[in-house]
Design brief:
This protein is an alpha+beta fold. Helix content is 26%, strand content 43%. The longest helix has 14 residues. Keywords: Ribonucleoprotein, Ribosomal protein, RNA-binding, rRNA-binding.
Length: 146
């Protein structure tokens, strides 16, 4: 994780993709990145490029432009929420103080970067990283103040 402009950066996924052309295969890369300030702001970005470093830089730039504010209530989320994106579904639940982040994969990274310290989450359906990140961000946007 890198810190820049007050935001911590985390690359969630890098994929090698190819396009079939008349002259053969054209190779490219896709990057999925998340940024957060650990104080209630988190954003995600996905981008494609011909090389890995450019794809990551573009994804981080998009993530900084897509930052959303998250309601954090005493180091946890204010209430339980269930959110879907495509075939992925995430259930985020508040947890008692000292529990830590009980979540797996990409969901854990998003929750950590937004600053939630005690939370429990469960991925249902597809565990696709892009779907998991989008589900989690949408669920955090839906959180209301208690």
């Amino acid at each position: 994780m890198r810190v820049q402009d007050g935001f911590e950066e985390k690359v969630i996924q890098i994929k090698r993709v190819s396009k079939k052309t008349k002259g053969g295969n054209k190779i490219g890369f896709t990057a999925l990145a998340v940024v957060g300030d650990k104080a209630g702001k988190v954003g995600t970005g996905m981008s494609k490029a011909l090389d890995v470093t450019t794809a990551i830089a573009k994804a981080l730039s998009k993530a900084r432009r897509n930052v959303v504010s998250v309601n954090i209530n005493e180091n946890t989320v204010p209430h339980e929420v269930l959110e879907s994106f495509g075939a992925s579904t995430v259930k985020i639940m508040p947890a008692p103080r000292g529990s830590g982040i009980i979540a797996g994969g990409a969901v854990r990274d998003v929750l950590a970067l937004c600053g939630v310290k005690d939370v429990s989450a469960k991925m249902l359906g597809s565990n696709n990283k892009n779907g998991a990140v989008m589900c989690t961000i949408n669920a955090l946007k839906k959180m209301e103040k208690k």
